[in-house]
Amino acid sequence: MDLLQIIKAxxxxxxxxxKSIDWKSLKTSRVKLLExxxxxxxxxALEADHLYPEFEELLVRxxxxxxxxxxxxxxxxxxxxxxEKLAVGDKPVLAELANQTLALGTxxxxxxxxxxxVLMPLVRRELPTLHREExxxxxxxxxxxxxLLLMPKKAAKSAxxxxxxx
Length: 166
Description:
6 helices
């Protein structure tokens, strides 16, 4: 599958997941929050380890892109931590949880829109379809086996290829 299709599907999944956290059921929402944290962590790791390094040359005239994305990642991680801290407190206040979830959604939406408006059109224009499909396989493999994120990039690519052949 093409990398751009995978990224767009991930973005849609993250957006929907954030919208699904309503805090009416504290227990269910806490579980969803942990899953959201996992999904975002994998997404950010894939971006940092595989996506952004691949496109540094393409974005040489836009070096601020990576600075902004890194700042977005940090802001989103802090927002997730704050939300998690609120959710596991002794007496979570539902209004605070809802406001923090809204703030998180705004941060995430800004980050995803930046990728969709800047990076994805550039990738579509500059990278051959075959290369995008190869990167799509890496993304798919890592999503299916997040332990590959713990490996060095070349080893992860090799392990993913070996797993596909098996």
